[in-house]
Design goal:
Elements (H helix, E strand, L loop, with lengths): L1 H26 L14 H30 L5 E9 L5 E9 L2 E7 L2 H8 L4 E7 L3 E12 L5 E12 L4 E10 L4 E9 L1
Parallel strand pairs: 1-7
Antiparallel strand pairs: 1-4, 2-3, 2-5, 5-6, 7-8
Helix pairs in contact: 1-2
Length: 189
Amino acid sequence: MMPVFIHRHSRIRNILVTLMLCACTCITRAEPEYTTTAPAAPNALEDDIQALKQEVIALNRELFILEEELLYPASTQLAVFLSLDVGKYFTLDSVQLKLDDKVVTSYLYTERELQALQRGGVQRLYMGNLKTGEHELVAIYTGKGPNGRDYRRGASHTLVKRLGPGFVELKIVDNSGSEQPDFSIKEWE
């Protein structure tokens, strides 16, 4: 099955390069052509260039999808997402994600990204391949806790990876009862 993807991947790349060369040739032609037929309308050439650009964009999109399928096959795929419902008891600065005691990603948040997460956004924090079986997932959060104090907290979860894609959510929620943030890790089926 893999050779089919590789063959298709290289064919699409070749088509993409050919189309881009054709578009560049049309745009950078140094001398006007002298023919006995009527010259092409400037609008027709612009329309052809726009059509080529649209085809290149469509091929690039398909190439990206094929590349994702090659790099992250569905049978071994693991995606980790982050969501939060905080603001009063915790302000997130950064997250570090470890999988089986190996750091797989670290992320430092900007003010704008935090605002998007606080409005209900979800961030794909990590995407990678993982063998089936048990794995330990650890998330380490840093930020400002209650009363503006520096806060560093970790959450861990034993992840059971099965055949097929796996999805995990890291969730940070304000807990009014304890006046502290709660950090949870949830596997999605």
